[in-house]
Every structure is written in C-alpha cells, then in structure tokens.
Amino acid sequence: LKLLDTPGIIPTKFDTEDQALKLALCSCVADKAFEWELAGRAGLKLLTSIYSNFNLGFELVDESSAQRFINAFRSGKLGKLSLE
C-alpha cells in the first residue's frame, strides 16, 4: 500500500455549486473561501431535502448561527449524516 501526498487534488474551480457546498460543509475548502451564512442556509436546505424529519433546533438567522450549524455538522454533533 502506497500513500501519495499530492497537493492540489481538490480543484480551485468547481463544476457545480452543489459540489462546492458539500466540500465546504466537510471542511475540504478553506473557511475563508465561502460565505458562512449562504453555505449554512444551503446546507440546511440540502439536509432537509435528504432527511425529511431533520430538525436543527434553531434558526439560521445570521453568520454566527450558520457557523454553529456548520461546525456542529463537521463535528458530528448533528448525528451521522450523509450529503448524498
């Protein structure tokens, strides 16, 4: 088994916004490369479309609440959720 450390695997330009969103939610792109509030709202919309009974427990009203949502998703505090 060989492991290769290949920088630049993730493209700098994405084919779709959906692809970029999923990478942002998974912390695969730098936090400075996206707007937290937009990513939070789109991520919540994506999860509610996949999981019909998904309830965040608070509203995304500003950047701070979006950061809380994204960080909770990243850390697994929202449960085991798939973006596909």
Structure description:
The protein has 84 residues and is mainly α. Helix content is 44%, strand content 0%. α1 crosses α2 (36-50) and α2 (36-50) packs across α3. The mean pLDDT is 85.
Question: Keyphrases for this structure?
Answer:
about 80 residues; mainly alpha; about 0% strand
Poorly predicted tracts of residues: none
Helix/sheet category: mainly alpha
Q: How large is the radius of gyration?
A: 14 Å
What would the principal axes of the Cα set say about the shape?
A: globular
Strand content: under 5%
Count every beta strand, where a strand is a DSSP E run of 2 or more residues.
0
Helix-strand string? HHH
Total count of helical runs of at least 4 residues: 3
Q: What characterizes the major β-sheet?
A: none
Mean pLDDT level: 85
**Helicity range:** 40-55%
Taking the alpha carbons of the first and last residues, their distance comes to 28 Å
Strands, helices and their partners?
Elements: H1 17-25, H2 36-50, H3 63-75
Give a summary of the structure in a few sentences.
The protein is mainly α and 84 residues long. The protein has helices spanning 17-25, 36-50, 63-75. The longest helix has 15 residues, at 36-50.
